[in-house]
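Dear colleague,

Following up on yesterday's call, I've attached the two folding results inline so they're easy to grep. Please treat them as preliminary; we haven't cross-checked anything against experimental data yet. The first protein's sequence and structure tokens come first.
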Amino acid sequence: MEWQVTLAISGPITVNQKIRFNTEKGFDDPFWSNIQITAVQHGVKMDIVARADNQEEANEAALYFAGQALDYLCLTINLPLYVSQSGTQFKPLNENVKRILTREDWINSFRQAREIAIDRRTLSRSLSWYRKGMVSEDPIDSFLSYWSSLESIGSRFAEDNQRTRSGIINKICNCFDQMWGSCNEWKIIPSSSDKLNYFHHLRNGIAHGFISVDIDTIKVISTELAIIKNLSYEFLQDWKSRGVNPEPYAER
């Protein structure tokens, strides 16, 4: 059965006119889905045709499908994009400047997201973590999400040697080396590999409970948030463009 699912996408974006296009959807049994995007006050309204046995599954399929495209688009334009998990409730935003997205922007986001989901599953997950970091209103959740975007690629693509076998920090460092060269050439934190140690210390302390989640911790995390966000952004942009493609095997 086919269903029309309406999604509320909130963010500092708009379109100049109603946009319609078809895009390929699904992996094992792909089909072409109709998509319509309309400008609204706090973002855009997206109508997607989904195939499913019931209403709930249709909504879940549309959220998954659109979510991957929004993950890719979020990194591309570097702006937070929220999608309502159910219904058409928009998140009120006080934005007087909005990015105008074209039909080509949307088509490319859906196409690229699908290709990445097929051939580069680890990168697809990292893009999802990055968007989660951007849309979270909790600085701790944002911090952990940005760290996870780096950790997922580091744990999968670090070169196997004695140094990287010692833990995730060295795995991430190795992926930075693969992209940017020696530590003094790293983007955002040149000659500052200790910053990754500090990020990992904060991540572990929060995750395992030996750092209290109190106002002081929130202040510390908030101070570091812009750094880890920009680090994740620059690394994912470069990895997307110049990293391993396709992956040695695509996890499904």
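Below is the second protein, in the same order (sequence, then structure):
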Amino acid sequence: MGKGKMDDAAAERISKARGRNDDFARRAAIAAHNNKEERAKKSDPKGGGTGEYPHSSKQGGGSGQSK
């Protein structure tokens, strides 16, 4: 089997074969969910944080004035 991202169909097949309470089946479901969210973020037209500068907001800089 080739390398690939876990999808809902694969997670469902694993769960059906091994049982819903199996640790591997649970991890497969979590991986499928995470991969689905990751794909949604990448296709977000509003720029869901995948821009060139992921931390473009100024953090901890203050106003630049010293007291």
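For the second protein, one point worth flagging: The first helix runs from residue 8 to 18.

Best wishes,
A.L.
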